[in-house]
Design brief:
- The protein is an alpha+beta fold and 734 residues long.
- The strands form ten sheets. Strands 37-38-40-39-41-42-43-44 form an eight-stranded mixed beta sheet, with helices on both faces.
- Helix 9 (574-588) packs across helix 10 (605-616).
- It is globular and about 75 Å long.
- It starts with a helix and ends with a helix.
- The model is unreliable at 1-25 (pLDDT under 50).
């Protein structure tokens, strides 16, 4: 009887499939392991793309016929593969192949040698040690850079005959012709003296690791020395054995002592070292050094501790004597970048600055005065790609048409004949060759994975290298909701930008809970018409479970000029929290949103924001997920915190009154607090102090702690576990 009933249903079910189309079978559900463990939703990219010196070819990494990685040469005009420079299967000894990986590579200036790191060990966010190999392209020989231990931040000399590198806090030079490895410094010592690489806070906040540079003629090596002997220490524990392993390092918190930084100039031929005169003040920053086109003149950036005065010094390579080239001051703070470019003739240089209220390109003379403001308008230059002096053109990216979009432009050195080179809506990035005849365009939008194309200098597309069509076809089998952009106005008329992902099968007459996500820190941006693969799928996972996901860029974020960004000066968290609360209230007025079920989630600065929102606006936010949060800015590092807040001594109210620790007693909603015990960036101390405040005020909350995990809380199954538990908690509490 059951079989007969089932058989009579088959024609009906077949008719349903025909009427509803392939989606009856095609729609798949997103899973957390597919996002974080299986990397199923990571689109293709163009690996190792490197322009070659001839201007007609580029190098990139691909698999050879044996399935091993190789560096191939391609023609810009056709994008056709023309040659292989290096292949693991051909150029690596058979007994070494198993331990050899081609994760990244770099050429010397003449592109006669390739440097390849293997067996890398990560230190902090950007730093690592590795066993580096040097491949001679002409001789087809592969040799280890050094047999005396792993190296950090190696760099070829301009003639490609030497490599400078750091080991155990000391600087070395390896001469390929003689095979001699010469030690330049001898005083390097952990937690005391560092030569040639950055201390923790410079690496994290000024964004570089390699703290030395070869002069253009290769005769002088300029390098940083960090004396961190007086910097307070912090210890994190790793639970890997019977007794925990204590890792102690130097971490200057707001208002505490920084490293004393000096710049030295080492003469490679004579072995003599001179110290550059950076002034008598030791409590200052040297955020960059850069050689001019004159091998005898090094440019040193000198910045005061408040970070509102920046001087460019010119140092004589033989004596270390300095003079001031240019000075810039700001009422609040100055953002450091890598855009300084010296023009041929060494009489002018290119500089980017917010001095007229928006980030623009300027040409200065060596008298320290502006010769030309190249770009102008109420919009920000967001990337500087370089200058083609032969044709008198500067290439850059800007947010001219919208803070939420990016396009690539060219403009003459006198500011005339601006030309838009990319036209596809969304975000466009460019990587130019040395002759500025071609560039690799990387384009995406909020709902479409990146495509990569070779373009001519005028923006004309030569060939699409990767359109991610297979990836787009694969994710089409999932019931994905698109990001929709929206704007609304604050009471003072300021317009804020946001995006929204609606639930699968959205119905306008139904009320939905809202999961807000936020970072919100100074100069950051999350509301951007650009593809964000993991988060895009994360948020669609929530949408498939019936949640509206939204994000709003509050005041203090980037690409909208100096006034919008720097309004948060001396009071981090005040305007940002007000804006996120105003966003939640605005969303609550929409007919399809349940205003009683709005929650906030954030990580790092966003974790700080999540705590600020639920503690300062308990009637607005029902729940908050706070991951790796700062709970009082006095616990965070000196460079970042003081840039926006000055010191705790100078700004006591800013630190103590605008902090989750101060408002913890107001929390009434559901709270999930997450942190890694081995976080070297936002210390677990922040969470520990928050726990004490929550206990003191009888606040009920949930906590997840990850031993041995740093700020990223990743590795193995960690991320998958974290997000699965975090979202399950959300389903039960929002």
């Amino acid at each position: 009887m059951q079989k007969k009933i089932a058989s009579t249903l088959l024609p009906f079910l077949f008719l349903v499939v025909i009427l509803t189309g392939k989606n009856a079978f095609a729609q798949k559900q997103i899973t957390i392991p597919d996002i974080w463990q299986n990397s199923r939703f990571v689109p293709e990219s163009v690996d190792g793309f490197t322009p070659l010196n001839d201007g007609e070819h580029y190098a990139s990494v691909d698999a050879d016929v044996y399935g091993k990685q190789a560096i191939y040469v391609y023609d810009y005009k056709t994008a056709a593969k023309t040659d292989s420079i290096f292949t693991v299967s051909r150029d690596v000894a058979a007994d070494s192949v198993r331990n050899f990986s081609l994760g990244s590579f770099s050429f010397d200036k003449n592109q006669e040698h390739i440097m390849i790191p293997t067996r890398s060990d990560k230190i902090y966010r950007r730093s690592s040690t590795a066993l580096y190999y040097i491949f001679d392209i002409k001789k087809k020989t592969l040799n280890a850079l050094s047999a005396n231990g792993k190296q950090s931040s190696p760099a070829f000399s301009p003639d490609g005959k030497k490599v400078a590198f750091v080991r155990d806090n000391n600087l070395f030079i390896k001469d390929f012709e003689s095979g001699i490895e010469k030690q330049v410094t001898t005083d390097g010592r952990k937690n005391f003296i560092i030569n040639g690489i950055c201390d923790w806070v410079y690496e994290e906040e000024f964004g570089f690791v390699q703290a030395f540079q070869w002069s253009p003629d290769g005769n002088t090596l300029a390098f940083y020395q960090f004396d961190e002997s007086m910097v307070p220490e912090y210890t994190v524990q790793f639970f890997n054995d019977l007794y925990p392993e204590n890792y102690t390092y130097k971490y200057p918190k707001a208002g505490e002592k920084n490293s004393v930084v000096e710049i030295y100039l080492y003469n490679v031929q004579s072995g003599a070292t001179v110290k550059a005169d950076v002034g008598a003040e030791q409590d200052q920053y040297i955020p960059r050094i850069k050689w001019t086109n004159d091998a005898k003149a090094l440019c040193i950036f000198r910045m005061n501790r408040l970070q509102n005065k920046l001087e460019l010094l010119l140092a004589d390579a033989s004596t270390g004597n300095t003079s001031v080239l240019m000075t810039e001051e700001n009422k609040k703070y100055i953002n450091i970048n890598d855009n300084l470019t010296f023009l041929n003739g060494n009489k002018q240089f290119i500089w980017t600055s917010q001095q007229d209220g928006y980030n623009h390109i300027y040409i200065y003379g060596f008298d320290g005065k502006i010769k030309t403001q190249v770009t102008a308008g109420k919009w920000d230059v967001t990337a500087f790609y370089g200058v083609d002096e032969k044709n008198g053109l500067i290439y850059y990216q800007s947010a001219e048409e919208s803070p939420m979009r990016r396009y690539v432009y060219s403009i003459k050195l006198d500011g005339a004949d601006k030309m838009k080179l990319t036209r596809d809506a969304g975000t466009n990035n460019a990587s130019f060759n040395s002759t500025f005849t071609y560039f690799l365009r990387n384009h995406s939008d909020a709902n479409a994975a990146p495509d990569y194309a070779i373009c001519k200098a005028d923006g004309g597309v030569v060939k699409i290298l990767e359109d991610n069509s297979a990836f787009k076809k694969m994710i089409a089998d999932y019931q994905l909701s698109k990001k929709e952009f929206f704007t609304f106005k604050l009471d003072d008329g300021t317009e804020l930008n946001g995006w929204m992902i609606k639930p699968a099968g959205f119905k306008a007459n139904k009320k939905y809970p809202v999961f807000m996500t936020c970072y919100g820190g100074p100069g950051s941006q999350q509301v951007l018409d650009s593809y964000d693969p993991n988060n895009y799928m994360n948020f669609n996972y929530l949408a498939q479970h019936g949640y509206i996901v939204t994000c709003v860029d509050n005041r203090g974020t980037g690409a909208r000029g100096e006034d919008f960004e720097k309004i948060t000066y001396l009071q981090l968290g005040k305007f940002e929290t007000m804006d996120q609360a105003a966003s939640a209230k605005y969303l609550g007025t929409l007919p399809y949103i349940d205003a009683t079920r709005i929650g906030m989630m954030g990580w790092s600065y966003g974790g700080f924001m999540a705590l600020m929102c639920i503690s300062n606006y308990p009637d607005v936010f029902k729940s908050a997920v706070s991951v790796a949060p700062v709970t009082n800015w006095k616990f965070y590092d000196s460079i970042y915190t003081e840039r926006y807040m000055r010191t705790p001594k100078e700004n006591k109210d800013g630190y103590d009154k605008i902090a989750p620790l101060s408002s913890a007693s107001n929390i009434r909603g559901k709270l999930l607090l997450v942190a890694g015990l081995a976080d070297d960036n936002v210390h677990y101390q922040n969470t520990a102090e928050m726990l004490k405040a929550l206990y003191k005020n009888n606040v009920v909350f949930t906590q997840m702690t990850f031993p041995d995990k740093n700020h990223g809380i990743s590795g193995g199954n960690t991320r998958s576990y974290l997000f699965k538990q975090m979202y399950d908690w959300t389903f039960n509490n929002l």
